[in-house]
Amino acid sequence: MRFTSQEEYGLRCVLQMAKRDGEGPMKIADLAELESLTPAYVAKLMRVLRKGGIVVSVRGQSGGYRLARPPALMSVADVLMVLDHRLYEPAYCQEYTGISPSCVHMSDCSIRALWRRLEASLWHVLDKATLADLVGRERETIVQLGAPLHAARVS
Fold it and tell me: 101: how many CB neighbours lie within 10 A of its CB?
């Protein structure tokens, strides 16, 4: 499973705003410094997030960006949907066709069923996790989400 840089950094910027919820809008320069990004890239992320209803812009000298809803009412899924995350996309099958023009398993693919199930499970978890759940330190978040301390591989 991979997330794009837009999804990773977009979520990080949103979490910076969640950590400071109620303290007023955050400036692009401040977000850029906190996340070690260029101001131009943060501005691009803010445009995407604003169009998607995740953040609102505040005009004026003390303006910037703030969350459109309280962190407890915004899920990680809400943010990633705006940033265009897709674990599985049907067009993906066309990328791995071997030497044929289309995949030989298009009509009956057990792997595709697995990817769809995995995607549904992932979205279920992301929809339950709010920004408020993620504003603490890593160990606190692990406890909050009921996640294992270390990823375990079942053999």
Answer: 7
